[in-house]
Amino acid sequence: MIELIHDLPDHVVGLRASGKITGEDYERVLIPALETAFKKTEKVNLIYLLADDLEGFDMAAMWSDAKIGLEHFFDFQRIAVVCDTLWIQNFVKAFGFLMPAETRVFPLMGFEAAQAWITE
Questions:
Q1: Domain ranges of the chain
Q2: Assigned fold of 2-118
Q3: pTM, 2 dp
Q4: Structure confidence by residue, pLDDT tens digits, 53-104
Q5: Is residue 84 within 8 Å of residue 108, measured between CB atoms?
Q6: Of residues 27, 41, 115, 36, the one with CA closest to residue 77
Q7: Which end of the chain is more exposed for a tag (fewer CB within 10 A), N or C?
Q8: In terms of Cα–Cα distance, which of 48, 84, 80, 82 is closest to 65?
């Protein structure tokens, strides 16, 4: 499930992922949130909190994620990934440099620091 993190500036989209992430989550929550943000601002910051109970992504979600990433490759200014899952942290650190957006990883205990950084 993907839920919005509320009370963020217009240029920031905040998401909390838990359980199994589906293509429907992208269609119902993530894509509309991004579309709304891109109508308000040229560059969007994204904070993505991956809860400890995250089970993974189905194929439709992975496909939607790839499409969004390619479609808006240059439209993100900053991306913060907040999680305690070591392989995800390492993946983001290893491949984050490929993104034109500044990308950082924060532990779950560092959510407030991530939120402060992403809202700058």
A1: 2-118
A2: Transcription Regulator spoIIAA (3.30.750)
A3: 0.90
A4: 999 889 998 888 888 887 888 899 999 999 999 888 988 888 888 888 999 9
A5: yes
A6: 41
A7: C
A8: 48
